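This part of the workshop introduces the protein records we will be handling. A record pairs a protein's sequence with a compact description of its fold. Comparing a sequence with its tokens is the quickest way to learn the format. To make this concrete, we reproduce a full record directly below:
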Amino acid sequence: MKQSRKESGQEVPEECLAKVIGLTSPADACRATAVSAAFQSAADSDAVWERFLPLDCDAVLERAVHLVDSSSKKELFMDLSDDHVLLDGGKRSFGLHRSSGAKCYMLSVSEMGIAWVTADLYWIKRSDPDSRFSKVAELMSVCWFSISDRISSKELSPGTQYAAYLVYKLTQDASGLSSPRQISFIEVGGQLVGSIHPASLHPCDRCSCATRDGESSSSSTTSTTNVAAVQVHEHMKDEGGLIVRYPRQRVDGWLEFEIGDFHTGDEAAAAVDVLMVLQELEELQWKKGLIIEGIEIRPRN
């Protein structure tokens, strides 16, 4: 049956269509372009995509290392959801979650608190061709292992469930990074959120897990980080019934370990610090071979 002009939305003013589409989501707006030419024009308009950009997007981009130049609000959104831009002299990067438009950050090692990082005997900072940042931190040898970073809740999108991920690689001779005393946790406003997680930075050696991770890393992505939308990787170890959290492989070649997750308050909520910690301060076995790019904070998929 031939579609009437009224049914296809061609008699509805574009500004009305844009207002309605702007109340949906970025994914819905993209789907709306297939309805009709009128819907496509409205769905691609700046009026729609400005609603999906963070209110402080312009202020954030003023801190960009390089000028961010886009011909439309939709192009700007897509650019930021495809890849991060460097901010603050290259100390962190910023992007958008494609499905929701929520803000995403990666904090570089120059912002992180790493125990003994200033001593070349224990850590070295060097360039890495695979990193978006000018420097990564490579662990040479330590027994006292502590990594932390923090971000203000006001820098993130309100009313959003976030997760924090350590993004890293391992050298071929990496060792000591799966102690049962190694833990990760998140505090918001000085209060522990959720559980303290026993943490292994060595990938799980179960065949079933390796297969599942391989399938996940090749699936479609939902954010600027080229990582698949997957659940946290954790299961019981054979000894002691301990539930251990493991990393997952990203399609960009790095590993990521979920430190923990947290929820941001609404827009009226007071700003609080979100502290992300990974440490092993009890067993104190020697560790080496960890190459850290940073900590990424993005909506939990």
